[in-house]
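Possible race condition, two jobs.
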Amino acid sequence: MGAKRFLYGFLLGSAAAGLATLFTVPQSGRETRETLKNSKDTFISQLKDLKQSIMDVKDASAYATKEGRVHVSRFIQEVNTAIGRWKAETLPQQIEIQKEISEIEAAIGHLENELSAHSATSNAHGVDHNNARQ
């Protein structure tokens, strides 16, 4: 939509400039017609160049879009592969860490049981730890 509005504005501005020039030229009719004819050819040539430039930009952007999709797709594939390798490489460490955590939890549970048993034994023998410390 923006390109159409630009082109319409360009054409309208060119026509207005042509009319203003036509009414303000100090040349004769024949000279003015000759100048207009030459200007028309130049204007048409410039329009063709503009059209070609716009087509080149369109083609370049289409190519860049296509290439971008290919590169993004490859990048995503490589990232997924790297994540898969990382998971496979870290799995043994993860299993080992889980095993160690289970052992630590078991040791803590064992210590808690010993503490409970020791407290129960101490209380059964009538030992008051608070008074014994003083």
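Job #2 (started ~2 s after job #1):
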Amino acid sequence: MKRLFIKQQVFSFRDRFFVKDETEADVYYVEGEVLTLGKKLRVYDKADQEVLYIEQKLWRFLPEFDLYAKDNHVATVKKEFTFLKNNYQILGKNWFIDGSVTAHEYVIRDNESKVIADISKKWFSWGDSYEIIIYNDEQVDVLLGIVIAIDCVISQARAGNSSS
């Protein structure tokens, strides 16, 4: 089990942010590419090795992100069209999401309905954050990437709503 924390609204004005563990130590950092069409994010571990690349697909009706590990496509996070709920598909994995994504209160389950990650909003001395508890140690990087992609969709939607 791995417990990680991401500061709320990390995509607002930064192109780099850190993912921390329960001791507030940096365990990953994420860098966004500037001046690109769509979001392009790279996730690095403590040894400065790229563990994941996240790229927004362009020209889609609803947001869609591809995740790559070592140049191999590992998953696609796709927002579904619904009126009352924020639903996402996780293609390439037999996983699905339950709960309120916009409130950062949701779980990711495998095809047997077993919880493999639990995401919830937390308040700590270092700022509003959300906590990610990952129960599948073999999929930490991919699950972290899925949460980052979903947060990116939420941040873009909030930015779009505030500009109108």
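The chain has a mean pLDDT of 85.
Logs attached separately.
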